């Protein structure tokens, strides 16, 4: 039997590669390793789960055991890849110490099943791979904050984070959110479903400032404010201190904001340490070419961790494109990834929004058409070529029509 194709990570990127690979190759052994529970869930649902009354447990669509059976794979949850030896084509694994499938309220059944190994292995293990796929995701960026409660700031980037967040919301009335980007705005809107009117703080002057032109950003702001979200723009949080049963946030303009909980949503940093320690090229993410190949033979990278042909795109559509292309390559047909226009739906029901940002550095200008119930912003070159767009409210109906006009970011 050949050495297995090994995938590191059971997020959407890792499992998409596995699924697509199994469609093309039913026999090569497949090993999927994750330091988390290994259950399949849709990460985008974390920021609208409160409105849907979801718990971390009900968000899990399939357990590691079920995924193993479905994929004809071995899934090793609660197991961390510590090291990669690219010359020997080997990885070193270790069970995560003290791992507990029920930790933080996430009860994911993974133990004692065929294909899904028990999490209680205590020794290091070395395994040889035929090909290695790195899909380790990204870490939330943490602001360097002063104050004795700086470590009480939460972020929600996986199921365990969500379980903790939901638990700590019980009895909370005032929530401050750091960052008015896509994730910050989505959580703000979602908290309204719990009767919490959050305050979102951002150094920028409007929400989604890197994705929306000014008029569209103002429209989003107005709609979210009308629904009950408060914003503090043009200020940074400097310090967070505990004062009795609440937290006091000191802002850069000298004012104070009181909150029961603080959620940070200021961005993600691709997890590159494992790859870098193995000598793989990394820049903003693990560097790959259009074939998702890293700088080491037989090692590939996908998902939030990857910088594909210069692009770090931490969204679902790019990782689906990557998964399909890499699966074909791993099954014997070298296939470059293609990135058509990939609009992102912002889950703010108070103001449905779709963004398809122009490529970084693109020359052109925004043109905004607004009506009472919608706002359409088009970014076009001097020659009139549509390069990106943003749609709000009723204008979101134009998503497909406009996406079809935007040239591919990475074409055939
Ligand atoms: C709240 C939220 C809402 C979002 N909403 C949207 C949306 O609406 N639309 C959209 O397109 N995108 C959205 N995104 C982004 C999208 O969810 C991510 O791009 C995608 O889920 C990333 O998948 P991934 O598999 O690369 O990473 P992850 O899901 O983070 O998976 C990484 C995996 O690697 C494992 N791992 C890491 N290091 C190791 C190691 N050393 N050994 C073993 N295992 C390891 C982890 O345990 C985990 O299983 C959202 C993201 C968040 C946080």
Overall description:
With 412 residues, this protein is of the alpha/beta class. The protein contains nine helices and 24 strands. It has helices at 12-24, 56-59, 64-71, 159-169, 182-192, 214-227, 273-277, 316-330, 399-403; strands at residues 5-8, 30-33, 74-76, 79-85, 90-95, 125-128, 131-134, 138-140, 175-178, 199-202, 230-233, 237-243, 246-251, 256-259, 261-264, 268-270, 286-288, 299-301, 306-308, 344-346, 353-356, 365-370, 374-380, 386-393. Strand 23 (374-380) and strand 24 form a beta hairpin. The radius of gyration is 22 Å and the shape is globular. Residues 101-119 have low confidence and may be disordered. The structure holds flavin-adenine dinucleotide. Flavin-adenine dinucleotide is lined by residues 8-14, 33-36, 43-44, 46-47, 80-81, 135-137, 156-157, 183, 271, 274, 303-305, 314-317, 319, 344-345, 347.
What is the count of structural domains?
3
Mean pLDDT: 94
Number of strands: 24
CATH topology group of the largest domain: FAD/NAD(P)-binding domain
Describe the strand arrangement of the main beta sheet, using strand numbers: 3-2-1-7-18
Sketch the major β-sheet.
5 strands, parallel
Task: Give the helix/strand class.
Answer: alpha/beta
CATH superfamily of the largest domain: FAD/NAD(P)-binding domain
What's the overall geometry? globular
Just give the CATH class of the largest domain: Alpha Beta
Q: What is the share of helical residues?
A: 10-25%
The tally of helices reads: 9
User: What is the beta-strand fraction?
Assistant: 25-35%
Bound molecules: flavin-adenine dinucleotide
The parts where pLDDT drops under 50 for at least 5 residues are: 101-119
Instruction: For the record, give the distance between the C-alpha atoms at the N and C termini, rounded to a whole number.
Output: 35 Å
**Radius of gyration in whole Å, from Cα?**
22 Å
The appropriate CATH architecture of the largest domain is: 3-Layer(bba) Sandwich
């Amino acid at each position: 039997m050949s050495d297995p194709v090994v995938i590191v990570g059971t997020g959407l990127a890792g499992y998409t590669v596995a699924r697509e690979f199994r469609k093309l190759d039913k026999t090569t052994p497949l090993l999927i390793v994750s330091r988390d529970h290994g259950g399949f869930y849709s990460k985008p649902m974390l920021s609208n789960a409160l409105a849907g009354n979801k718990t971390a447990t009900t968000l899990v669509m399939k357990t590691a055991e079920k995924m193993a059976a479905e994929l004809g794979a071995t899934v090793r949850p609660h197991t961390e890849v510590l090291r990669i030896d690219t010359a020997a084509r080997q990885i070193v694994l270790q069970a995560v110490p003290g791992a507990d499938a029920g930790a933080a309220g996430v009860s994911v059944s993974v133990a004692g099943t065929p294909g899904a190994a028990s999490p209680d292995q205590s020794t290091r293990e070395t395994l040889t791979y035929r090909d290695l796929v790195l899909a380790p995701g990204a870490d939330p960026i943490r602001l360097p904050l002063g104050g004795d409660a700086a470590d009480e700031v939460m972020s929600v980037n996986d199921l365990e984070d969500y379980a903790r967040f939901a638990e700590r919301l019980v009895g909370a009335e005032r929530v401050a959110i750091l960052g008015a980007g896509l994730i910050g705005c989505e959580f703000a809107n979602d908290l309204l479903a719990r009767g919490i009117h959050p305050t979102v703080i951002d150094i920028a002057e409007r929400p989604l400032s890197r994705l929306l032109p000014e008029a569209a950003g103002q429209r989003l702001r107005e709609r979210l404010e009308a629904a009950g979200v408060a914003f503090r723009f043009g200020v940074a949080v400097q310090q967070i201190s505990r004062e009795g049963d609440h937290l006091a946030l000191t802002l850069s303009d000298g004012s104070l904001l009181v909150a029961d909980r603080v959620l940070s949503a200021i961005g993600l940093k691709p997890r590159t340490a494992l790859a870098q320690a193995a000598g793989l090229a990394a820049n903003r993410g693990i560097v790959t070419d259009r074939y998702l190949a890293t700088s080491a033979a037989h090692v590939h990278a996908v998902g939030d961790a990857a910088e594909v042909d210069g692009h770090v795109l931490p969204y679902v559509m790019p990782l689906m494109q990557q998964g399909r292309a890499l699966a074909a390559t791993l099954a014997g047909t070298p296939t470059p990834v293609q990135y058509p226009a990939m609009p992102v739906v912002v889950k703010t029901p108070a103001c449905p929004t779709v963004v398809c940002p122009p490529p970084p550095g693109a020359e052109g200008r925004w043109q905004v058409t607004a009506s009472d119930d919608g706002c359409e912003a088009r970014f076009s070159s001097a020659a009139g070529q549509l390069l990106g767009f943003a749609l709000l409210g009723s204008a979101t109906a134009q998503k497909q029509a406009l996406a079809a006009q935007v040239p591919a970011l990475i074409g055939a």
